[in-house]
Amino acid sequence: MTEFWLISAPGEKTCQQTWDKMMLATTRTNNLSTNHKFNIPDLKVGTLDVLVGLSDELAKLDSFVESVVKKVAQYMADVLEDSRDKVQENLLANGVDLVTYITRFQWDMAKYPIKQSLKNISEIVSKQVTQIDNDLKARASAYNNLKGNLQNLERKNAGSLLTRSLADIVKKEDFVLDSEYLITMIVVVPKTSYADWQKTYETLSEMVVPRSTNLLFEDHESGLFSVTLFRKAIDDFRLKARENKFMVRDFQYNEEEMKADKEEMTRLSTDKKKQFGPLVRWLKVNFSEAFIAWIHIKALRVFVESVLRYGLPVNFQAMLLQTNKKTMKKLREVLYDLYKHLDSSAASIMDQPAMDIPGLNLSQQEYYPYVYYKIDCNLLDFK
């Protein structure tokens, strides 16, 4: 499990003091978490009104970007099919694993110029990730269609002799072709009834050619026999065969059709292989882009929330805490004791039923006296 808590607290005399205090409380005596400074550059603050509105917008954008990150990761797992264990090594951000990227986070000045307003930066992210989402839908739809068509053909070539394609099984010489009077029928006979078939097939109806049956193929349940008869006896033979639990396949030998089926299978299989490489590359690149955008949104949220809570001039330390299940509860208590002086209302809020705090898009379950956002790196949901 890799879960990070991204928190911030106001700078004491210096931000380094804030950091040292938190380190002392969480690691030096009791090892509750592994901590990293989280560097957020000097962003443009703007007006209070804009910040309050932006707080709500960023919350929605955060959820949207996270959902796209997860969609891309999950689709990568679907596309890699049998090599799902390779998924993690393809889910990288800027060429490094996700934990490394988060713990060494550096703001990308080229993609998200800090001279722009906060609103502009959030719009750049929104536009970029919406584009990835739309592209993913289009690419996934095309690849899934191809995969679906191929699977349908593969299913036709497998399964029971009653339904499967016979193109790979029968040969031209198994059939009487181009005869005005005679026709070769294909019959599925259960293995337990082979002896019955040999004894009775010539008398199931009139006009069956004696000694014309051959076993062409068998699987673990039944065999595929050919039998030749006069065309005018087809219906009678089919009926009598069914009464004896012999199933006549509705099959006529057609070389062109069978060749077309094989070619279609080869074509789809080749297309799938051709699309696979570029699709995986696209998923890798765009997973990285979406994940990087997501962490920048987290950084924006911490900045906006910290200014709203702790006021101006901007003076706070953002900190990244890597937690584990065993110590989470204790870590919450330690942080609460460390920061409860920041917001006396947080104590009473935490004991009250859920409520919305205007401008601080946070439900009661995660309102703490310090700014807090969770980053969960468990992006895959393996069924």
From TrEMBL:
Keywords: Acetylation, Hydrogen ion transport, Ion transport, Transport. PANTHER family: V-TYPE PROTON ATPASE SUBUNIT C, V-TYPE PROTON ATPASE SUBUNIT C 1. GO terms for molecular function: proton-transporting ATPase activity, rotational mechanism. V-ATPase is a heteromultimeric enzyme made up of two complexes: the ATP-hydrolytic V1 complex and the proton translocation V0 complex. The V1 complex consists of three catalytic AB heterodimers that form a heterohexamer, three peripheral stalks each consisting of EG heterodimers, one central rotor including subunits D and F, and the regulatory subunits C and H. The proton translocation complex V0 consists of the proton transport subunit a, a ring of proteolipid subunits c9c'', rotary subunit d, subunits e and f, and two accessory subunits. One of its GO terms (cellular component) is lysosomal membrane. Belongs to the V-ATPase C subunit family. Pfam families: V-ATPase_C. Subunit of the V1 complex of vacuolar(H+)-ATPase (V-ATPase), a multisubunit enzyme composed of a peripheral complex (V1) that hydrolyzes ATP and a membrane integral complex (V0) that translocates protons. V-ATPase is responsible for acidifying and maintaining the pH of intracellular compartments and in some cell types, is targeted to the plasma membrane, where it is responsible for acidifying the extracellular environment. Subunit C is necessary for the assembly of the catalytic sector of the enzyme and is likely to have a specific function in its catalytic activity. It comes from the Eukaryota. InterPro entries: ATPase_V1-cplx_csu (IPR004907), Vac_ATP_synth_c_sf (IPR036132). The lineage of its organism: Eukaryota, Metazoa, Chordata, Craniata, Vertebrata. Transmembrane segments: none annotated. This is V-type proton ATPase subunit C.
